[in-house]
Amino acid sequence: ETQEMEELRECFMSLDTDGNGSLSKEAIAAGIDSVGVSIPEADLTELFETINVDGSGKIHYTEWLAATVTPTLLASEKTIQHVYDFFDIEQTGVISLKGLLHLLGDGNMDSAVMEALDIEGNGKLCKEVFTALMQRMAQKDNKHEGKGLEPLSIVSDRLTGS
Fold first, then answer.
1. Is the pTM of this model over 0.70?
2. Euclidean distance between CA atoms 126 and 39, whole angstroms
3. Is the CB of residue 58 less than 8 Å from the CB of residue 48?
């Protein structure tokens, strides 16, 4: 599990050529192109819109994981811990909402969402809430399984040598 997560993280980082922590539609297209896969523009747009759950126009790491990791692995404790650690940029054992905003970009989460995540009112995202979010993403991914996400699996497999 840990190796697969590390490979997916490396793949995401290799596609994130401008280093802003998110992938544009163009970055996804370039990644698909780089492994010799050709898909029509309409299919690329549908793929991108399916993955871009928050509608921000960018694919964030959690969206990438939801699209590339099997639902069982996404909901596993090891995967949740791996992703939690990724977002714990201050390495304090908790995810600060300030750090989360830094990784996702200020414009990608409105204040109501941030307040909903901060259930303890301390500016931090607790592990229990984060775990529940990841498990919900896994359930949602189960519903989308087999709906055109194969190009991303091909890209991640070929870029990581799996």
1. no
2. 40
3. no
